[in-house]
Amino acid sequence: MTEENRQFGLSHRTELGGDEERIVLKNAWPEVVGLTAEDAEKRIKEDKPEAHVQVVPPNHIVTADYNEGRVRIFIDLSGRVFKAPVVG
């Protein structure tokens, strides 16, 4: 999967047994921007129940490693999501 697909939650196609099947990979949640961290986590878990969700407070430093099981929720001073959470 390309970095662009990871970042924007795009899908890809695969062929199984001669029939084309569309597999949608949900990797970004722009719809949760503005929600509380708690509400955003609930929404993310609906799409990716196995995700390890991390809430990141303002001005907090995070590692740059990629982890396909992790979704970080960046919140502002009011506790609201200010950046679309993505897998990684």
A few lines on this structure:
The chain is an alpha+beta fold and 88 residues long.
If you had to describe this structure to a student in words, what would you say it looks like?
About 20% of the residues lie in helices and about 25% in strands. The strands form two sheets. It has a two-stranded antiparallel ribbon. Strands 3-4 form a two-stranded parallel ribbon. The protein has a single domain, classed as Trypsin Inhibitor V, Chain A, CATH 3.30.10.10. The N terminus is likely disordered. By secondary structure, the chain is an alpha+beta fold. InterPro entries: Prot_inh_pot1, Prot_inh_pot1_sf.
Class by SSE composition: alpha+beta
Helix fraction, binned, reads: 10-25%
Basic shape? globular
**Major β-sheet annotation:** 2 strands, antiparallel
Oligomeric state of shown chains:
single chain
Give the strand line-up of the largest sheet: 1-2
H and E order: HEEHEE
Number of strands: 4
- Radius of gyration (CA) equals 14 Å
The CATH architecture term is 2-Layer Sandwich
Strand content: 15-25%
In DSSP terms, counting alpha (H) and pi (I) runs of 4 or more, how many helices? Answer: 2
Q: Give the CATH H-level superfamily.
A: Trypsin Inhibitor V, subunit A
CATH topology name: Trypsin Inhibitor V, Chain A
Total domains: 1
Family: Belongs to the protease inhibitor I13 (potato type I serine protease inhibitor) family.
Pfam families: potato_inhibit
GO molecular function, one term: serine-type endopeptidase inhibitor activity
Keywords: Protease inhibitor, Serine protease inhibitor
